[in-house]
Amino acid sequence: MLCYGICFRSIKGVMTVSSGFDLCLDVMERVNLYGRDQGGGFSRLAYSDEDRGGREELIGLMKGLGFDIRIDDVGNIVGTLRGSSHTSPPVAVGSHIDTVPQGGAYDGVLGVAMAIGALKEIEERHPDHKYPLQVMVFSGEESSRFGISNVGSKAITGYLTLKDCFSYRDDDGIVLFNAMRKFGLSPEWMGRSRLLPSSIKAFFEVHIEQGPFLDRSGIDVGVVEAIAAPTRMALDIEGRADHSGACPMDMRKDALAAAAEVVLAVEAVGRDEYRHGTVATVGVCHIEPGAMNVVPGRAHLKVDLRGIRKESLERSYERIKTSIESICCSRKVDFDLKLLSKGDPVVLDGGLRRLLGKVCDDLGLKWTDMPSGAGHDAMYVASSIPTAMIFVPCVDGISHNRSEQVELERIKPGYRALVRAIESLLER
Ligand SMILES: [Zn+2]
């Protein structure tokens, strides 16, 4: 049994941590003291007072565990356990602790807590480890407050510009840059925190799946192959508003009826291409004028297309475009289709994925390769550093919801795989 020789307060009183996994649970409990909603759930929005509370708690806790703490110019917290070599790059593990409004207890914070638990356990078992062990806590992962996601991981990999920090603001009009300054940060200097490709040996992120696949299949560990990048489109359909009583059916240019066909066509593409891991959604539909006695004259739709296979994404995009053209042509309505963004899926490091697979086999764990439809900090880190991601099951796949839950026995295998994978990297 491991003992860190440390005692610290938990909400139940004084306790001694006896294993890395127990430490992980205690870290979660401690961070989740902040931003707790009255109706259940957690609201620690990026750069809010609640986020600050959780971060300060975490920093104090990590210092007590022997981590050297550095906070970069956008607020990423980097905690390091020194290795015996002063020249070797660290092995890093991390995630985020900010949440959506009324979010759950595990999205993000579980990955940070597992990082701390795993690295302390490894340090205890290998006191002479050569590589430094590093926890990375990324700031502003959720887009809920400022409309931009992954602020911290984008900043250190060159995907966030200073202009972005001035462009995004929250519902109260607070500009992201000013929120960061209020946090005591210096976003104008973010360039100096940039990750260099050889500066970290490997990066791991553990995260709840946020979908139902693992929970339903009884598989405990998902080794993420690739993270989907969304292709997003905005579609404006211009029909003609008419009197709903007086306009004959064969003379209508009903924008909503055309939009409805588009919605079904997008869904059909998603259903066809799902076997290649692609999903397609119309998440926005506004109509004008929106009156019961008026044939809708205009419809505005937003389409989100995601997948991890480039050919399938290309094919889906072309099929959606062709369907929109033919629907609007046959209904004699005008349309304007704009491509808002088109990103390539991020394939995670093959060597680390194979290592995780082998480790899971060695440990006798039930595991699978799988895609991630949701974005994560790992997708930006992967542009600079060999990166891997482990998914663990969450009950019914429910996430971004206060009823987010995990079963401890089903997340433990992911923790064990993480520990063993890092240990085998340290031996190299
Ligand atoms: Zn997350």
Brief summary:
It is built from 12 helices and 17 strands. The protein starts with 6 loop residues before the first strand and ends with a helix.
Q: Could you please describe the fold and organization of this structure?
A:
This protein is an alpha+beta fold. It folds into two domains: 7-228 and 345-426, Aminopeptidase; 231-342, Alpha-Beta Plaits, CATH 3.30.70. The chain is 35% helix and 23% strand. It has twelve helices and 17 strands. The chain has helices at residues 20-31, 49-64, 109-125, 151-157, 162-167, 176-182, 213-217, 255-273, 310-330, 350-363, 377-381, 408-426, and strands spanning 7-10, 13-16, 68-71, 77-81, 91-96, 133-138, 202-208, 221-227, 231-238, 242-243, 279-288, 294-295, 298-306, 334-342, 346-347, 367-372, 387-392. Strands 3, 4, 5, 6, 7, 8, 15, 16 and 17 form a nine-stranded mixed β-sheet that branches. Strands 11-13-9-14 form a four-stranded antiparallel β-sheet, with helices on one face. The longest helix is centred in the C-terminal third of the chain and has 21 residues, at 310-330. Residues 1-17 have low confidence and may be disordered. The site of zinc ion has 5 residues, from loops. Zinc ion is lined by residues 96, 107-108, 141, 207.
Please render the helix and strand layout as text.
Blueprint: E1 7-10, E2 13-16, H1 20-31, H2 49-64, E3 68-71, E4 77-81, E5 91-96, H3 109-125, E6 133-138, H4 151-157, H5 162-167, H6 176-182, E7 202-208, H7 213-217, E8 221-227, E9 231-238, E10 242-243, H8 255-273, E11 279-288, E12 294-295, E13 298-306, H9 310-330, E14 334-342, E15 346-347, H10 350-363, E16 367-372, H11 377-381, E17 387-392, H12 408-426
Parallel strand pairs: 5-6, 5-7, 7-17, 8-16
Antiparallel strand pairs: 1-2, 3-4, 4-6, 8-15, 8-17, 9-13, 9-14, 10-12, 11-13
Helix pairs in contact: 1-3, 3-12, 8-9, 10-12
Bound molecules: zinc ion.
Zinc ion is lined by residues 96, 107-108, 141, 207.
